[in-house]
Amino acid sequence: MSIIRIEDIAHVGFTAPDLDAMADFLGDFGLQPAGGDAETRYFRGTGSAPFVHRTRRGAAGFAALGLRAESVADLETLAAAEGVAVEDFDAPGDGKVVRLTDPDGYTVEVVAGQKPAAPLPLADAAPVNTARAKARLRATKTSAAQPATVVRLGHCVLGVSDFRASEAWYKARFGFITSDEIAVAPNFSIGAFMRCDRGDTPTDHHTLFLLQGPGGAGFNHAAFEVIDLDDLMHGHDHLKAKGREADWGVGRHILGSQIFDYWRDPWGHTLEHWTDGDLFTAADGSNMSDLPTLMGVQWGMKMPARG
Fold first, then answer.
1. What positions does the domain VOC occupy (predicted)?
2. Is 274 in contact with 223 (CB distance < 8 Å)?
């Protein structure tokens, strides 16, 4: 039994020396400004989350993982178990927050009670014709060249120094369920894709992926859902035209199934566009996988060699 069960990822936080440069990149990436001041900027998608990306002025780095609890009562339960305070959350949407530190020193901000933002409208999309069904008749399919439309934050991947220690820490506090564990030997695993436990409610294949890799502890990437494949490809072309740094994509993952496209912000932090991912319930259990499957693709660009 875990202390609480979180219901989703809430946000990711960074520090950067130039907030305007970060804002320019995030605009090209498809995020919308959500407030801030001279020292902090917030950005949102089109969904109801008040913000999904925060940057504070400072030396470039990853600053925090935000998780969303179901209620302020859950925050009080978590705070009592951890011996910390429930604090006011000074950010868009307000609410309350409990701040913890995981085994590798990552700040984990568990939030609840935020006021949802009014969703932003999504552009209408013409139906797709396939060999199975023709839904679009006597009409063309066109869309404007523009950044991708980020709808929401979907998951975060963290490099850890001891996978089993980090796995135990996150599961004991937040109720994560393993979707796919990555084994490299019969009795040694280096990571796991973990989803939220929301009972019979389907949830993303992974909200958090912990990876014990050769690089040790460190931020790997954060992933943002876009509308569909056309939207993802518009985002790809827009970022390329703007001279942004591509990382990996386009392709379709094996584990999680999503179509992906990875880019780097001005300080090298990787952000992913994705669409068409898998959803599972608590009853769907867990699977074992391996490193070639983790690194492989169903189609598209193979994982580039890392220096």
1. 8-113, 152-276
2. yes
